[in-house]
Structure formats: C-alpha cells, structure tokens
Amino acid sequence: MNEPLLELKRLLLQRLRGLKSRRLGRSKLKPNAKDLRRLGADLTQIEKAKEELLREGYIAAMSSGRSYKLTETGEEFLRRPSPPPLGYDGHLLPYQKSYLLLLLLKRGEQKVSLSDICNKLRTDNLKRVMGFGLVEPDEKSVQLNRLLIAWILDSLSSKGSVERIEGRMGSASYRLLEAGKELLGASDQYDTIKISLSGQQLNALLNAARLAGKTVGDPPPVKPSRPTAAQVLGEYERLKEECFAEYGMVPIYELRRVVAERFGADAASHDVLDSLLKDLRREKQIRLIALGDGGIVTEQQIADSIRGENEIYFMLGSAVYEPAPLR
Predict the structure, then answer these.
(1) Taking the model in full, what pTM does it have?
(2) Which of 11, 25, 135, 296 could be disulfide-bonded to 31 (CB atoms 3.0-4.6 Å)?
(3) Span 93-211 CATH architecture
(4) Are 3-79 and 229-318 equal in CATH topology?
(5) Integer Cα distance of 253 and 175 in angstroms
(6) Beta pairing class for 162-166 and 306-307
C-alpha cells in the first residue's frame, strides 16, 4: 500500500477515536486541513480510504451509510504501531526521541499539542541535522516532517513513555509520563544541538537521570560481541511485530542498527551479521528480498544492506512465501 493512503486511513480512524461516540457523519469524516495539505490528498483519495476502511472492517456504515462508526477492529489497528514514514532514519531515531522527550519535560505536567511541538522544531538546524525535516525536490529548502514527528511521539506513547490525548478533528496532544522521564534520563542528546534550560527544567532533567539510575561517569554496559542466529532471528521478529507489522518485512539496515545497539558494532558488521542472516536463509528461517529499480533509498541504507552477486538484498521477510522485489 502506498504510504500517503495508509496515513490517510490512520488519520480518519484517529478522527473517529477522538469522539466520545466514535461516530461521525460521512461528509464530516475527513482529516483536518493541515494534514490534508501535508498529504496532498483530495476528495477522491479520501473516499477511497473510507472504502478500504469499510472493506477491512475498521469502520462500519450506520444510518444507511450516512455516518461511520469506529469498530473494535479499527481500535485494534490504531493500537498497533504504524510503519515508519518517509524520512525515517534509524541512526537518528534515539536522538529524536530524546529531544522530543526533553521538549515535553520542559512543559512540566502540561499536555502539549502536536502543532506546538512542531513549532519548536522549525529551525534549519533541527530539520537538517536532527532529521526532523524533509528535503524538497530542489534540494535547497527543507519542510518540517510533521508525519515523522507524530510517528515518533505515537511510538513513545505505545511504549508508555508519553500519554497521547485525543483532540477534536483527530488532533493529538502529548504529556510526559514517569517512564518517559526515566528514558530521557538514560538517553543522550545529539552532540552539536544547543539546549537551553531554566533552573527548574535542569532540576527536572537531573531528577529524570536519577530515576533512570544514570550518573555522570558510569561506564557503558558491556555488550556481547557475537550474537547467535537465534538472537538475530528474535530481533527480526520483534521489529516485524512492533514496527513493520503492516508490511510484514523488515529493512536490513534497521535490523543492523538494532543489533549494533544491543550487541555492539562488531556484531552488526557485514562479516558477522551478513553471515548469520545467510545462515538463517539456508535454514529457511527468513528470506532475503532484493531491492527493485524503483526503490527510494539513501546511500547509507544501501551500504547497510547486503550485496549479492547481481542484486542488493534490502529487506528481510518470512520464509513462507516468495515476495516480489520492491518496486
């Protein structure tokens, strides 16, 4: 499924979830104007998204089709993490999460709307260096990647680090929870980003570090250098379930990043990880899926994939079926 349509469907479901009755008239079921502009969606695409939601059982037609109601299946769909949007960078994700948690910490117990959070991320430095922006086709200007920001906040919400609060028209606000304070206290900020804090905010950050049990000068935990094939398979299955359930496939570059975080850089090297993945393929545990000509990828993502004799293996998938190359 194309990414804008998938996001449009999710926005429509969120619109219904934000209502106490979970029900809305057919003509009124549409995202807010800002999201429509961001997605470039028109009335035809909105109606197509509604038709798919009906067919998949995520919404039900009421009053002879004059209104729609969110179903339990739709509620369950919203509880699952959505696949990463365009602009996602696994190497920057930990820093992006940490910075967003810091923004919420600075607001104390207040809930903060997605729009307010985005307004704090509009500097060129944050959009380019921290990856909160998307480069325009002219490669000179960068627009704020609101879709990515919302995805990161929702992923933090799914882990219990922040509270997502539904608003009108499918909008959302967020509030930092105790688990988020602990995560922030145990996280690093991007080295070159300047951060200003009031004394009260600094005290809150230090308290978050104490909650996480992190003190200045503590040595980093020792990571095992060589994972087993079973451990790599376990990381693949976890990523597929938590982040890529809609696709059923996991990018190799993303698995490599996770393996590096858990087991160290040597474990994620081509010599080690590629061999383990090829062993798993021979054992019919996974499939290596080649990248087609139409894939929109970065040079770094290709470098972190696996090179074959005549193709680049870019994704990992189930061994049950033989998927076609990505187009």
Answers:
(1) 0.54
(2) 11
(3) Orthogonal Bundle (1.10)
(4) yes
(5) 31
(6) unpaired
Domain 3-79 has CATH 3.40.50.300: no
Please give the C-alpha separations between residue 225 and each of 78, 134, 260, 267, 303, in angstroms, as whole numbers. Answer: 37, 35, 9, 5, 21
Per-residue pLDDT 10s for the chain (327 aa) are: 446 777 788 888 888 887 888 898 988 898 877 777 777 788 888 999 999 999 999 999 998 889 999 999 888 877 766 677 778 888 889 999 999 999 999 888 899 998 899 999 999 889 988 899 988 766 678 888 888 898 899 888 878 899 988 776 557 899 999 988 888 888 888 887 877 777 777 777 777 777 666 544 444 455 455 788 888 988 888 888 888 877 778 999 999 998 988 888 888 899 999 999 998 988 888 888 887 654 567 788 888 999 887 888 888 988 764 444 444
Q: How do the domains of the chain map onto residue ranges?
A: 3-79, 93-211, 229-318
Count the Cβ atoms, other than its own, within 10 Å of residue 266. 14
